[in-house]
Structure formats: C-alpha cells, structure tokens
Amino acid sequence: MTLTAAPPPVLQVRGPDGPWTGALAAFERTGVAVVCATQADWRPHLPTGSNLKRLLGRDFRRFRALASDELRARFVASRMLVKHLAAGPLQVRPEDLELGYGMHGRMYLRGCEQVEISLSHTRDVLLVGISSVGLIGVDTEPADRKLYGRDVERLMCTPHERSELDALELTDRNDRLLRLWTLKEAYSKALGQGLLFPFTEFGFVPQGWSAQLARADGTPVGDAQWRYWTVPVAGKFLGAIAVQNNRRSERRDTRVGTALPQRLVNSIQDSLRARAG
Amino acid sequence: MEPNETLHPAGAAALAGTDRLAAAKARVAEVDAAFGDPWHRDNPIGFTAIGAADEAGELPAEGVRRYHELGLNKEFVPAELGGRLDGLDLLGPTLRPIFRRDAALATGCALTAYMAATVVWLNGTESQRKRLADVLLRNGTATIAFQRFDHDNEFVSDEFRARRDSEGIVFSGRKLAINNAADADLLITFAAVGDNAYSVFQFDPDEAGDKLRRLPRHTTNGARGLKISGLEFADARLPMDTLVGGWGDGTAVGLRTFPLIHSSVPSMVVGIGDTALRTAARFGQEKGAYTRGVLEVPRARAALAGTFADLLIGDCLSLVATRAVQLMPDQCDVLGAVVKYVVPKLVSETMYHLSVVMGDAFHARSGHNAIFRKHVRDLATVTFGHVSSAVCQATIAPYLPVLATEKLDLAHAAPADLFRMERPLPALDPAKLAVFGGSDGLGAHLATAAAELPVAVVGGAVGQTLLRQLELLRTELDELQQACATLDGSGYAADPKAFPLTDRYALVLAAATCLGVWLNAGAGPDEFLNDPCWLVLALHRLLRRLGLPGPQLPAEVEQRVCEESLRRAAEARSYDLFGVELSG
C-alpha cells in the first residue's frame, strides 16, 4: 500500500449504490480514497422517517436544528455519502457508524480510529476523503469563484504568497488565490482547526498538481509526512486534498470486525460470564 | 486535654497523607531540576540539544546519563525488590519531567523497560522478579516484544513462536521492531505457542548464542532517537524457567498487566502536552499573539484555556485509574482502558489546537519552538495509536452489556479515597487483577454527585452551569445504559454498534473523574483547583466531544483558566494537578 506522488483520483458516485469499486480499489492500493457527488444525484435516494433516524443516529439532533429544507437535504446527503464510503473499508452497515465532531468541527467516525475522514461542500457538490494512513482534509470551491481584487489576499496570504501573486499575470491571479485558499482549508481541516489556524501564518507553493507547505516567509516546511494536491472536481469545481502519510503498517486492516484482538475479548467475556454465574 | 488528643485519627492520617503528597511533589521537582532549564540554549539536554539529537537519530547522551544518575529505573521497581515504586499514581507524575523534554528519551530509558517489568512483577516467579530487578537497579536494560495484532503497526506486525519438549523450550521467529533490542540485558516477550495461545518468556537474548541473528535498525516517523531493531531466533534452546506465568497463559498475563500500563502511560504523556502548552503560552506572551495581549485575542485565549483544561482532564483520568488498580482492582481494567483510549487523543488534539497561538512558529524546524513539532511527531509513536485504542476498546466493549444493568446509586459510588492523591494506597495484589465485572463506581459517582455540590458554589453563575452540565451528563449516562441494553452480547464478536458506545462511555467517565477530583480536592489544597472554573471548562469540552451542546459558559470561566495557564508559564509551574515548580 503506497501513497503515490500523483493526486488520488476523485471519483464521482451517483448514489448509495455507487459505483464504489474505483474508490475501494484506490483505498486498498494507497490507503486514501476521495469521492465527489452532486446533491441532485443523491436527492432521490435520501431516506425518510425511521430509515432517516437510523442512518443519522445521534446526528438526528443536528439535522432537526437546521433552519431550512435545503440545509437539511444537504446534511442528509453528505452524511449518507460519508457513511456509505466508510462502510466499505470498515465492512459494516452505514447505519452502524456514528459521526463525531472534534472541538472545532473535525468530523470523525466515533470509536473507529482506523480511518480518518473529511467532508467539504459547495453549491451542489460534496467532496469526501477517507484515509487509513493518517489525517486527511479536503476542500472544494467553484472553479469560477471570484476572490482576487476583493482584498481577500491580504486576509489569507502570507507575505511571500502575496509577492508571488503580484508577479503573476493579472488573469492568472484568481486561479492561484483559489488554489491557495482550498489548500489552506484542506490542511487546516486535516489538523482539526477549521478556519482557526490563521491563513496568513502558513502558505503553499504550488508545483504542478501538488504543492509544498511553506512558512510565512516562503521557506518550505519540508515535512515529508504530508502531501498536498489540487484536483478537478465534477467538472466545474476545484478541490484540494491534504494527507498525512503516517503509515505504520504494510497491510493495513481497517475492518471493524477484526479491530478488537479476539483473544482478549474471548477471555474477558468468559470472565464476565463466570462472574455472572 | 492532652496535646495528642487534638488530633483526630483521621486528622493524623490526613497529616501522614499530606506528607505523601509533599514527598511526591518534591521528587517531581527534584527530577525536573536535575534535567535543567529546557529552554536554555546551552543546556546539553535542553530543547535545542534534544532537537539536534532527534535530527541525528539519537537519544541525547547527557539525558541518558542523568536519567541513570538519578536512579530513575528505581521508580518502577517495587520497594520489596529494592526500588521506589510506592503506589502507581505517583509513577506517571515522577516520569513526566522526562516526557516534557523528550518522549524518545523517556521511552528509550523508562517506558519500554517499565512495560516489560510490569509483566514480570505481576506474573513472574520470585527468582524472575529478582533477576529483572537486579538488571534495572544496576541501570541495565529490559525490553518487551508483543504478539502480532490484525490491526497492526511496526511493533505488532510479527511475532515470535515457541514450543516445548523434554529438554526445555525451543524459541524461534523474527520481529523487526523491538525498542532497545540491541542493548537489552533482558527480553520479556510474548510468543505464539500454537492453537491461538501465547506464552511469555524472560531471557537474555545472548543466551540464544549463535541461534540469534541481530537485525538492522528500524526507523520510525516519530521518536527518531529510539534504537529500534529486530531479532531473529532459529530454534534457540531456552531453559524452562524462562517461562513467565503458565504455558499458554499469555493472554491472561497480558490482561493482568494492561490496567497498570494503560493507566500510568497516559499520566506520563501529559508531560508532552505540558511542553506544547508551555511553548505556546510563552510564545503568545512574547509575541502578544501577533499584536494584542494574549488575553485580548479570543481564539488565543480559548486555545490556552481549553488545552490546559484538556491536560487537567488527562491528569484526573490518570490519577483515578492508577489509584483504582490498588483501590478498586475489579473495576480497574475498564478504567485503565478508558484512560489510555482518551488521553493520547486529547493531548494530540491539544497540540494541533495550539497552532492558532503558534501561527508561523507551529512549523518551526529550528530554535526552541521546533520542539513543538517534534512532540507532535513523537506522541503517535510512543502511544501506539490505533493499535492501542483497539486493545482498550476490546476491554471496554465486553463490559457494555453489563453496564446496561449496573445500579448507579450512592451505594455503588467510588470511595472518596479514589480521588485523593494524599491518601496512601493498599498494596497491589496481582491475584485481584483481571477479574472483570466490577460495578461502575465512577458512573455511580457522576450520577449521584450533584447532591453533594457545596452550597456556596451552587449559588453562582458558574455553579448553576455546573449543575446543568451534570444534568446533561446524567442523561447521557442513562441513554448510554439504554443503548448498551440493545447490544448483542451473546457471542464473542463485538456488535459494531459497540464501537461508538465505547467512545461515549470513555468521555462520560472522563467527566466523572474530573468531578471526583474537584469535589475531593484530589491533589491537595490549591486556590485555582478549588475554584470550579477549570472543572466547568473541562466538562464543557467533554460534552462538546459527546456531541452535546452544553450551557453557555460564564465569561469568567475561560478567563480564569487562561490566566492560570499564562501564570504557570510565567512562574514555570507544571500544567497538571500538582502545579509543581519546574526548572523552566
């Protein structure tokens, strides 16, 4: 299982039935899979009533608190996508999984540390990443989103990035800004900090489809554990992926069914039964 | 009245107890002082030197020398064998100063040997215990090799195997990653003995003679100074008395050992979080968190207060679980697993959260701020990550169907002594370990403690917040019991639905330990710890992690904890229940 230098393929899934084989194969091969979906594709499949409650579990409270039908539909579609994607490598039913949220919103599968997940959405598109090799963060924005010329660069760029930006042709600056923005979001999300890590304090130097993390003055951080990529998403969107390659196993098993050392469980259950008489 | 009558027996005990606490704090201060000011550039075991050693893939030599000069191996050798181990609750805080500086140094010198030794203290014969104690007391090295797990990492991806015949034991197999394998005077190792069974052995690898092949060094992502390498045995002949415990008893040996390791290692790991927070607090004070004072910047204030609260949660959990090993052995398995499951995650989250204070310096590769990233890297390596969590969940999950029927009332609540570090502990009794199925004294404590809150506290805004938090936690505990009642506990395979429940239960017990320590002034009188602000912030963070939005916090809560966080950086006092004076 090797994380390659090339970006992971972003595979579009049309509904709960997939197709999932590409994502599962990528995950098996590299420890990372990234999928995208449109809400339009998933809307006909969204569960209702008791099926919805079963799928959302404790997330049902969050769902109920949302202000509009549109937000609720996106919420259900995104949770459904995350759980269906994770259910494959974990070999459980999607409704067996429970989502938890870190102090600053980082999504994780409660009680299942063998994988990390990340979710991003914009307009009609959802982007989800799953990793068994370490932290992961993903972000997506519409490729035509206008950032340049709105003073955004002062709020989100390091001094080095701003000087690099100024050296670009005017027509290329928006694309660069969008790329930097999504990379910063992806990395900050991977660290579980959402937008809290000040974007002017760390930067990226794009190189082809990948990128290098840099300090505020442009010096490369040079942490070999991390990889960063920019990827096209569903035609009209731009995505970024940040992955920590902390792989410590040659044959990573992510199945829930094999997570607990069975000898220990058997022995403990025997003791418990003996005590219960 | 005779003068000695003024002392009530309980008062006398309390006085003796205060001595225990005072002695423990003095020892921690002594250990910390011996390693000198870590921030001082010229300190041969300061952060600059530690960073250089890490880059070079070595342990800081001066650190190793001072470790042995202090006789720190003695801290985990039982008193009856010539060591200083007197209550598991004091071990973690005593080794914390080393973890504060360098997790690799602490693991290379202490942690691996401690894990190995625990197996033998609890399961070995007198002569095996004596042999190991002799090695450790002369500053020798003992190491441990575990069996293979399905969800593996480098340390548990392969295993040794053994068989026995009329002449003794035949030992074989290869493991690629054993810490200190090259230097070990004694190897304590699990080995497969067929039919899904394991045995444990203790021997000097050199006893294998030419049947031993030493394998090259193995490098890890974190704790790069560790001297990890492999060993390969080709049908090596070992005497029968190398067997620790009964033939095929390896799983039981492990289960007896886990509560001690699980509860005390997180206590040590709090030291890694201490340095992360101290680095950020010092940095924040120097830089004014970019422009304004740290206290004026909401996200910096939240980070410095929140991470301190998390470290206190970690210390409360460790304190209670280590004391439970001797005070409530029938409950210590689950508690130990809870602590080992929760604390490394808390400390890890803490470190990433401090990026909001550190800013650009979060990525520093040189200077003393570089220690921050080193600690981030080291933590996952020394705490074993998912593999360890899975072992912990394997201990918690089978208990959950039992939890469903537990009576969480006053009669079952944990005794006050569980939370009070000044109280001496009964002797450790290995025969009482790994019995499982004790009740849930901490859950019962949480469920009944609201009635015990001091009237003076309940009146204020912070007290009202605390009451509401306890209500929410009580409800969560009820819901947990209901959810556990629906689990399929009939077979041996864990119900997939048990996994999220192990996580929720662990967070609820974390809240119970914080409450218990606060109510009982567990680490002695202290103005900051007696105040409920840290407790309310700790419970707030645990409720958030449970997915339950708690009541809004009064502004003074975060302010008070952040101020203390900055004060402890300025005065060089530890970020734990001790608040002990440090050398820097």
TrEMBL record, chain A:
Biological process terms from the Gene Ontology for this record are: lysine biosynthetic process via aminoadipic acid
Q: Which UniProt keywords apply?
A: Transferase
Gene Ontology CC entries for this record: cytosol
Q: The 4'-phosphopantetheinyl transferase domain covers which part of the protein?
A: 136-230
Molecular functions (GO terms): holo-[acyl-carrier-protein] synthase activity; magnesium ion binding
Mind telling me which Pfam families this protein's record contains? ACPS
Write down the InterPro entries for this protein, in alphabetical order: 4-PPantetheinyl_Trfase_dom (IPR008278), 4-PPantetheinyl_Trfase_dom_sf (IPR037143), P-Pant_transferase_sf (IPR050559)
The UniProt similarity line reads:
Belongs to the P-Pant transferase superfamily. Gsp/Sfp/HetI/AcpT family.
Q: What is this protein called?
A: 4'-phosphopantetheinyl transferase
Q: Name its species.
A: Labedaea rhizosphaerae
Automatic annotation (TrEMBL), chain B:
Q: Which GO terms describe its molecular function?
A: acyl-CoA dehydrogenase activity; flavin adenine dinucleotide binding
Q: Which UniProt keywords apply?
A: Coiled coil
Instruction: Show the InterPro entries listed in the entry.
Output: Acyl-CoA_Oxase/DH_mid-dom_sf (IPR046373), AcylCo_DH-like_C (IPR036250), AcylCoA_DH/ox_N_sf (IPR037069), AcylCoA_DH/oxidase_NM_dom_sf (IPR009100)
List the signal peptide residues.
Answer: none
Entry coiled-coil feature ranges: 463-490
The question of whether Coiled coil is a record keyword is answered with yes
Query: What is the name listed in the Swiss-Prot or TrEMBL entry for this protein?
Result: Alkylation response protein AidB-like acyl-CoA dehydrogenase
